[in-house]
Amino acid sequence: MVFKTLVSSFTTLDLFVKDPLKALSLSKEEALAILKNDIPVMYVVTPNLLKKLFAMTAHFKKNNFYLSEIKPLPQKIKAKQNYSNTKLQNGKFLMHHKWKPDCDFVRQASLWGINLTHSVEKEELVSFIDYWKAEGRFFYHIQWQQKLARNLEQRRSSKIIRNNRDINKISIPDNTIPDGFRDK
């Protein structure tokens, strides 16, 4: 079961490891984001909040309310040739060469659970636009931004993984315990 919630209370991993119960009790909400190098590594919730979330899910299931039942709008909408990049685009539109994400794109991406270290680069944006112009799909402005954020997250993480691999290196397991885990 997947739950999404907005968490405004946070602490570092080092402080959380020292006294997790105290850190959680000091949070304003009943949830806490744990950061390492200013990047969320995990989220912690109280049993009370977890109980509330499960109760809401049970209520939705009982009333047969599922987000998957909401039907999307048809994709066959005539393309608008208005390329103005206003803050709020009205209606769905095809991707075009003048499209740009909002100026607070990185902040919005973090609200969607996608942690971008820096804003979109020109080459990344051009590549994204060229791909989706050829696809000919219609989406709302916010949906295009979410697609761009997911695309950037995937591309940037694959670059890191690709650079760290060495096919000639023999892997040796280590016996270190990661931060946040306790020894038996």
Automatic annotation (TrEMBL):
Q: Looking at the Swiss-Prot or TrEMBL record, what is one Pfam family this protein matches?
A: DnaT
Q: Which InterPro entries match?
A: DnaT_DNA_bind
Q: What residue stretches are annotated with the DnaT DNA-binding domain? A: 94-158
> NCBIfam families, per this entry?
PRK02854.1
The identity of this protein, by name, is Primosomal protein 1
Name the source organism: Buchnera aphidicola (Nipponaphis monzeni)
Q: Which gene encodes it?
A: dnaT
